[in-house]
Structure formats: C-alpha cells, structure tokens
Design brief:
Blueprint lengths: L37 H8 L4 H4 L3 H15 L2 H20 L12 H4 L2 H9 L2 H6 L2 E4 L2 E5 L3 H21 L14 E2 L6 H19 L10 E10 L6 E4 L5 E8 L2 E3 L2 E6 L14 E4 L5 E6 L2 E5 L2 E14 L4
Antiparallel strand pairs: 1-2, 2-10, 3-4, 4-12, 5-11, 6-10, 6-12, 7-12, 8-9, 8-11
Organism: Solanum lycopersicum
GO molecular function: dioxygenase activity; iron ion binding; L-ascorbic acid binding; oxidoreductase activity, acting on paired donors, with incorporation or reduction of molecular oxygen
Pfam family, one: OGFOD2-like
C-alpha cells in the first residue's frame, strides 16, 4: 500500500467537477478506518485528481480522510463521530422486516413505464411519462404498490422497535416531529443507488440549472402526517439541489402540497407571482420532482394518515 504523506508533493488539487465516468467504489466495509460516513468517500472519490483516482481503496482512504478532516470544523467532526456511533447502535440491534428493500431490485421497485424511460435515457423518454403542471415541477408514476406497502411496513416495524426499546431517534429534519431517517437503519446504500441510477439521469437532463448531473449524495427519509402525527408543514425550501417526493399511500384526506416559485436564499420570503401558484394532490406511488429551492409547504391532513418517501439529492461541495 502506498503511503500518503500530508503536505507531500504528490498532493494535488481536487477536480472542480466530478469525473462522472469514474465508477466510485463502496466503502461500507471499511467503516472502522473511516473518519466520516462511507457515502461521503464514495461521493468525494469522483473529485480526486488523476494521480489518486485509480489507486486502490486502501490507498485512497488516508487521502480522503485528510481532505474531509481539513474541511470539517471540530464541532462537525464530533457530530459526525456521534452520528456514526448512533447509526451503528441502531443497525446492530434492529432486525429488518423486509430484507429485500435493502438491496436495489428495479423491476420490483419501479413501474415498467418508468424503467423504460430510464433505460432509453433521453429527454423525450422522460417527458413521455411525465406531466409538468407548473414550470420546474414534474409528476409521474414511479413506485410499485408492493414496494410502497413494504416500505410502510418496514417503517412501522422500525417504530415498533423504537417503542419497545425506548430508543431515542433523530427525526428527519427540524420541521417534522414524526417520521424516520431511512439511512439510519440500513437503507442508505440502496437509496444512494436509487438516487444515482434513477433520479440523477432525469436531473441531468431536466435540472441542469442546479447541476443535476453532479448529484452524488442524498438524505433519505419518510414523513408521516395525520391527526395523531404532524398535521401540516410550513412554507420552506429544502436543503437539496433536487427533491424527490413520493406518496407511499394509506387512506387520507387533505395534505396537498402548495408551491410558490423558486427563490435564492436571500429572497425566500418575497412575494409570490400569480403564475407561481400551484397545488398538488398526492396519489400513492406517484412522484413529484422539483428543485430544492422551489418554495413549498403541505396543507393539513384532515383525516387518515399520509406517509411520504423523500430523497433530498445533493452535491458534495468539494
């Protein structure tokens, strides 16, 4: 194994853009040697310069560790260390209900029309299965009913484990008091493949303005709405370049999403123009895809329970 010497002449500047032709490796089995989440290493690998990108994983790890340590403040390093321990504690104790969910099975997860469009991988094929009811908002049928049912059952099983063990979990974000981070109990690798192989191709063509081709990491979670859960969701933007939101179903009334136009960080609360107003009603298995800075919220779910799968698709800022 080649030795990495901090500050050596071999050290090179990272690429300004990821090398998308490079097949980045999986680092899950090297977690004991990593300072951060394994997916960060997979994402960052594509930014490595030519003299590092084709080295073995073990040769790349010290270099990647040093980059991540250099760019992370001490408070963030401590947070990541605690989060890694938290995730390891869950995964060493939680017993999955549907193990088939933890590995990508495209024909079992996605409807045929969606898979055909992804296979053809053209703007025409994508738009043939989609509607664009408002600029920048794409809707389409995506998930098989059986996948939706299994994901709902898996989340319910996880929540049952939480209640029985009295384990305190981290919720998906600061706005939702209910729901779960799917990445925290073993679904991270499957969702990364979901993002890379089934969301990024669409984003490459239809979300070029936010760097759709450079999406390389994600935050995957479910949210739950109902009279005994979160009822609604306030006006906000997502911490993502592109957001996928799919209704997993159950019987419910209300819960419409309302969209109010794209804004930069400094103008999130500026006035909405009439042409920016759009409301969307959820349908089980159907997806809505939009850029993360498209302002939106969710109206009250007035009866029943609504559960949605969300994948915030991001680009690692190398």
């Amino acid at each position: 194994m080649e030795e990495y010497n901090e500050g050596s002449s071999e050290e090179a500047t990272l690429r300004p853009e990821p090398c998308l032709e490079h097949k980045a490796e999986n680092y899950d089995d090297l977690e004991e040697e990593l300072e951060f989440d394994p997916l960060l290493y997979t994402s960052l690998e594509r930014y490595l310069p030519d003299n590092f990108i084709n080295l073995s994983r073990l040769d790349k790890v010290p270099y990647l560790n040093q980059i991540l340590l250099d760019y992370s403040p001490p408070s963030q390093r401590n947070h990541r260390h605690k989060h890694r321990e938290y995730r390891q504690k869950i995964m060493s104790n939680y017993q999955p209900l549907h193990k088939v969910l933890y590995t990508m099975h495209p024909t079992n997860f996605f409807v045929p029309s969606f898979l055909k469009a992804i296979s053809e991988n053209t703007e025409q094929s994508f738009r043939s299965i989609m509607s664009e009811p408002s600029p920048g908002i794409l809707t389409f049928q995506m998930l098989q009913p059986r996948f939706c049912d299994m994901m709902l059952e898996e989340v319910e099983n996880f929540e049952k484990w939480i209640r029985e063990t009295k384990f305190r979990i981290m919720r998906p974000n600061t706005m939702n008091k209910y729901g779960a981070v799917l990445d925290d109990f073993g679904l991270q690798t499957m969702l990364q493949e979901f993002m890379e192989d089934f969301i990024r191709p669409i984003s490459t063509v239809l979300f070029t303005e936010v760097g759709g081709s450079t999406l390389d990491s994600h935050h995957g979670f479910v949210v739950e709405y109902g009279t005994d859960r979160d009822v609604d969701l306030g006006f906000h933007v997502d911490d993502a370049e592109v957001t996928l939101n799919v209704c997993l179903g159950k019987q419910f009334d209300g819960g419409e999403l309302f969209f109010r136009g794209v804004r930069c960080e400094k103008h999130v609360n500026t006035e909405t123009q009439p042409e920016e107003i759009f409301d969307y009603s959820h349908v089980g298995g159907n997806a809505i895809l939009h850029c993360g800075r498209h302002r939106h919220g969710a109206r009250a779910t007035t009866s029943g329970r609504r559960t949605n799968l969300l994948i915030w698709c991001r680009r690692v800022q190398a």
